[in-house]
Amino acid sequence: MQLLSDALLRVQPSATVGISQLARQMAQAGTDVIALSAGEPDFDTPEHVRAAAVAAIGAGKTRYTNVDGIVELKRAVAAKFRRDNGLDVTEDDCFVAAGGKQIIFNALLATLNPGDEVVVPVPYWVSYPEIVRLAGAEPVFAQASQETGFKLTPEALEAAISERTKWVMLNTPSNPSGAAYSADELRGLAAVLMRYPNVHILTDDIYEVLVYDGREFATIAQVEPGLAGRTLTMNGVSKSHAMTGWRIGYCTGPREILKAMTKLQGQSTTNACSISQWAAVEALNGPQGFLTGWREVFQERRDMVVARLRACEGLDCLVPEGAFYAFPSCKALIGKTSAGGRALATDEDVVMALLEENGVALVHGSAFGLAGHFRISYAASDAELIAAMDRIEAFCAGVR
Length: 400
Hints:
three-stranded antiparallel β-sheet; 2 domains; seven-stranded mixed β-sheet; alpha/beta; Aspartate Aminotransferase, domain 2; 14 helices
């Protein structure tokens, strides 16, 4: 008798988690490793947010809460969506979970059936297609590339939609590429989606505050209100407020879907951590001025990392418009041999050779659906980034 479920056997392990865990194991064994494989701000959670958590503990706010979040946080979420995104919502239109990943998991598991399809633009965050498969549905990949700025075109979206499409996934700014859709680019996608009234949209806006060069963030229900009734807009405090470990994600969307998500969450984790919820209230309602300084630091790091990558023999890199990732092409290295003698047949070979021979942990592009690239996170200190770039440059120079 088979022990594991068919659903689980359809799912691949997370490559980002796997590489990061391997890097930690190597470091614990004494290897000098610079890990740029995880997507986590290196800043501390702001002091006023931490103070709110301590105050919540002191006040005894350590009990179960409503499954979909405390009213105070849902009000703060609704206020954020009105203030920053022009979405006319109230707390009754909002939902809270233990991280953005649980929002996506809840939404897809609550709505998908075998035979349903979900359009997933390539390159994609590693968990999107796996959550779709776990729900029994099929991901349909809509191809983007370096030539399109890693952005989905209206033509590619139209070609991917079928009568079985239930959801279209969007992610802006993007993990892994850093591509950020402008309002006009989203309008082009929205024009396609307006012709398919049975297709819902799940937009992952977790990197909203990290857009560079004076760009304005836009989300699809904002630029096309006609889609608001079938759009789930997801966000969280992990990237914006350096609260990855606090595990708070939130969303707004159709109440029928939120009700289904509440039912599902009520039979899984129930509420997100009560203390984290109170901290998130302060994160959303409190001072936001520090975000400008953080964004400036990330942009400076981006500029340095991209310049250094472009100087490496065999690498080519677009300038990311947001998030804190670069996604360079390493196609010119494939088919060659590393200085340590490893045959570089794939982008995964490039990444593993770089880790084993030069001690830099990155994630191969094929894990994100686009071979011939790798993802580097510049959410690290300047010293770590400079040292890592020195090692990457040395590795590329040694390839023959």
